[in-house]
Amino acid sequence: MTQPNVLGQTAMRYPMRTALSLAASGMPVLPLRRGKVPFGNCHTCAGNACGGRPNMKTAGPCQCPGVCHAWAAATADPAVITSPAWMGAWRRADCVAYHPGAAGLTVVDLDDAAAVAWARESLPATRVVETTRGEHWIYRGSMSSHNAVRPGIDIKSTMAYARYLGPGTGTITALPDTVRALAVKKTCAARPGPHTIAVPAGAGFGACRHRTPAYLDRGIAMAEQCITEARSSVHATVYRTFLAVLSTHGRCGCLTDTHVARLFAAAQAKGESARHCTDAWINARTRLGL
Length: 290
Fold this sequence. Notes:
Low-confidence stretches: 53-59, 187-207
Helix content: 25-40%
Radius of gyration: 19 Å
Mean pLDDT: 80
Order of helices and strands: HHEEHHEEHEEEEEEHHHHH
Number of helices: 10
Shape: globular
Oligomer: single chain
Number of strands: 10
């Protein structure tokens, strides 16, 4: 079993110092609390009530000065990192995380020895960072994030965060098609549901009414409200809501990463993990044949 290197251990002991160092190199960072999870939203942002629209290239998803909206709060702005609103989080932080996609990176998270062995046989060499149970292989280039693309392997890039465990060894190389193909195989492997759901015609079949901003924004807001107001069966509610959004907007090209991030933020505010959100989204797309 491997252990994080010395700089990785320093990152866990002095999280804000490490965060400022990473930010100076342009890496968007955020603190993680015990359990390697983000800090919860503040009262203003709870249930995505602030209407935050996460933008992966800027500091924070809304006007809230706190560490809200999980990965979307990641920032390279030292003024934000050292602000009073963030200081309380740093004092309680267990470690530092970063948003790979916003930095133009993709992390292949290898969670055990078997996954590491597969990567060494199947993937091109790149920078490697040791983790407590396996390795992070870091490539230059971003893509969508996916969990469990193979046993013990997750892909972390856009709309995700990865723990910082040190600089690693080796030279970062370009993201290979082999890694992108893992995500495609994961999507295809998800089993569709037994029922057929009608979906709107794709782009090219006449004018798309969904391109009216008010129509789409209203639909996303209603979906957020549906998730926020769930009192039980949150998993099922999130899946059904994702399914409803995709059945209306999934084929016409209206949905953007910002819209999807709003839905994920609402689900995570109800206690859903990033992995559950990703799995629900993939399963909904697969069921609709998208």
